[in-house]
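Quality-control log, excerpt.
Job 1 of 2 completed; input and output follow.
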Amino acid sequence: MSLVNLSHLCSHLQNASKARLGLTSLPHTNLHLSLLHSLQRAGFLSTITLGGPTPPPPSPILGHPQDPAGSAITQTNRATRRLWVGLKYWDNEPVLSRMGMVSKPTRRIWMGVEELRDVARGVKSGYVEGLKGIGECLFVSTDRGIMEVRECVERGVGGMVLCRVL
């Protein structure tokens, strides 16, 4: 797991939402895809579409069925695959206003269920501040995939704290 690439993803999404972009692209990796799916489940993103270096046509972004021709992944186009992400806005303000890493490449923060429960309740645990604001989320990489901290507490799993989203 490359936390450097994940920090690039965090800063890219934060900058894209501040620039009021409706659609942005990120490199396709399994880690990026699973974090983006978690962000979409939490309500920060509208769409995630796998595409090439050019933006996809509006039909897959709007949820209409797409023509499968031309979308096959081969060895020649694997390196150019991109994830096209649709950002959400509410009352002309970005839903994803701030996104930052908690674990860093030089300091990875692992937490058990009890520490994650404290953080979900708003209490500081170790290096991690508690969740204070409405809509604030903390994403954790577990052996069952990337989950939000409240979901980790419900399922009783711990893991490495990745990033905080406001």
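Job 2 of 2 completed; input and output follow.
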Amino acid sequence: MPAVQATIEYLEDSPLYETEKPYWCLLPPHEGFDPDKHRVDNLEFELRPDITISDIRDAKEDLTLETSGFQVLSHHSACSALPKTVEDVCAYKNETEIMLQNYLNATFVKCYELRARKNVSFQREQFDINDPLLVEGPARGAHNDVTYDSGPVIINRHLSDEDKSLYLKPGYRFRIVNTWRSLVPVLEDRPLALCDSRSVKPEDLIEADRIIPDRVGEVYYLKYNKDHHWFAEL
């Protein structure tokens, strides 16, 4: 399919971030802090129109984890809908582990998190970020969930002591891989867009803190660069 023009939401290239690290808080109300009265983030986004999005299906052979940082796999899932029970979540995680272990020829795979998203805006006064059945809306801003610093933290947090003793040593390579799939046969809007890592410069990536009740994580937000090459299933 021919490429299309679309709008991508980027982190604004603001002077603020020269002196203040971007952050986003997901904290419950407590003494001295009211999320309805205090600012919970300093994120400033900008919409960049007329971004060329190429059809990922036309370039499958050139797009691999090793070359571009992402890849399309064909897989028939036994989990065809949003998980409704904790057992559904466990089944989906197990299926994902088997799929990645087979594809990557991996010795060990740990699926540590599952997030379901719907193309709606949720207006909630309260929610549990650790609820395995939590359904969220679309994430804001072009981003990467794992940074140079947060990757080792994630590995340390989610691997058992036994797993660490087995694999945290020479001869093993670690990868943190996101797997995404659609829950509907035809995507009419908001398809997942992926940026070819070969078109991203280190200075395009801005570290941001994601602050939740039990820890502080870190993600990358993306600043606009005219050389970015985007793909989606069109």
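Post-run check on job 2. The chain has a mean pLDDT of 90.
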